[in-house]
Amino acid sequence: MATIHDHAAEHGRHPGVRQYITIAVILGIITLIEVGIFFLEITSWLMAMILLTLSLSKFALVVGYFMHLKFDDKRFMALFVIPMIAMVSIAVVLLAVFGNLTR
Amino acid sequence: MQYLAGVPEHRTSTGLNNRKLLMWAFLGSDVMFFGSLITTHLIYRGQSLTGPAEEILNIPVTSISTFVLLMSSLAMVLALAAIQRGNIRGMRLWLSATAVLGMIFIGFQMFEFYEFAHLGLTPRTNLFGSTFLVMTGFHGAHVTFGVFWLWSLVFLSFKGKVRQDTSLDVEIAGLYWHFVDIVWIVIFGVVYLIGAYGVEASDAAHAVAGMLS
Fold first, then answer.
1. How does DSSP classify residue B165?
2. Which of B95, B107, B149, B161 shows the smallest number of beta carbons within 10 Å?
3. How do residues A24-42 score in pLDDT, each as one tens digit?
4. Is residue B143 part of a domain?
């Protein structure tokens, strides 16, 4: 039987207040860029790529730093990432079949 | 009650706290739940035969509500950082700020739903209305539950039941709150921005497939 991780030690690995604020500023800037790109006249394919990349960056920052997944036990990450990969794979297949991906 | 407060450092076969493990397992299942709602919406987008659809999405207003929710996540981690340092008053302040920002977000969503209804879009109008309102409605329900959870923590802190040694209670509530935030990050990017721009679901799927390969 293993013992629970020492929370005090875990907290020592968590980001500090300054880092949290930095992450929040970055998230705000990315959101501004997203909205800015929305009003640009670019092709839909490029638009989708850029917006998905920016959304993914925000997603990773919140999960990694605010939810501490970057610093926590990897089994927590497995519990979250495995269903996410499964869901994205299912979504791509469903969109390919019913969303006329090959059109 | 001691267990509920997360006081004992109980022994487990995994060495991980069971409540935190349960929350991550729940979030994993919620990924599938919201993933299915978002995918259903993407599949049916552009296939509504009657009534208003993507063109009525108000991007400037939703950008502000998205920013509000992002800032609530910052307030949430600051509440956690405060309680981990033993700063109860700081935790109450930041938890209250998180809950208030969450309520503002819900206010934005109610305004949006009201505007949509005014423009003739309800869940019964067309495929866009039913898939969009069910998806964002479930997200709003998650936010509402989170707001109640946060206020209950603030209330319990006045009774001395939320302390530095029980900071895991705040951390678990924080995991839930941040999850609600990341779901909205995906909805805002994929449904609002890409959707309102008029990108076909197939373009979005091409982009996802391209990023995965």
1. G
2. B107
3. 999 999 999 988 888 876 7
4. yes
